[in-house]
Amino acid sequence: MSLVDEAKAVRENAHAPYSGFRVGAAVRGASGRIYLGCNVENAAYPEGTCAETGAVAAMVAAGETELTEVAIIADSPEPISPCGGCRQRLAELGGPDVTILMATLDGQRKTATLRELLPGAFARASLPRG
Ligand code: THU
Percent of the chain beyond pLDDT 90? Predict the structure, then answer.
C-alpha cells in the first residue's frame, strides 16, 4: 500500500467526536517501515492529539528516530498541512528536504518540504548542549 493509502486507512480509526474532522498520517522511517497515527480528541479539548503526533510517537516507540517521508489525509476542501506544533515534531526527526504529501479523500494532492513548512526552525543545534 502507498503511504497515502496507509494514512487513509488509519484515518478510519480517528477518535474525533468533537470536531467530526478525522485525520490520518503515515510516516516512513529510515528503515522503510511505515508508522501510522490518527487524531485522538478528548472531552478536555486541549488534550487532543493530532494524527501526525501519533505517527511520530509510534515511530519512536518502535525504535526509529529518523523519518524520510510523510503523508497526511483529511476530508477537507483542500489538502491540510500540519499544525505548527506538528511541524516542529516532524522537523525534530526529519531533515529539511523531507517531503510532506498532503491529500484529500477526493483525490487532491499537494506536497511541500519541511524546509518550506517550517523555515528557520528551532533545532537541537540551537541548544547549548546541541
Ligand atoms: N488535526 C490533525 O490531526 N492534524 C492536522 O494536521 C490538523 C488538525 C486534528 C486535530 C483535531 O482533532 C482536528 O484535526 C480538528 O482540528
Answer: 97
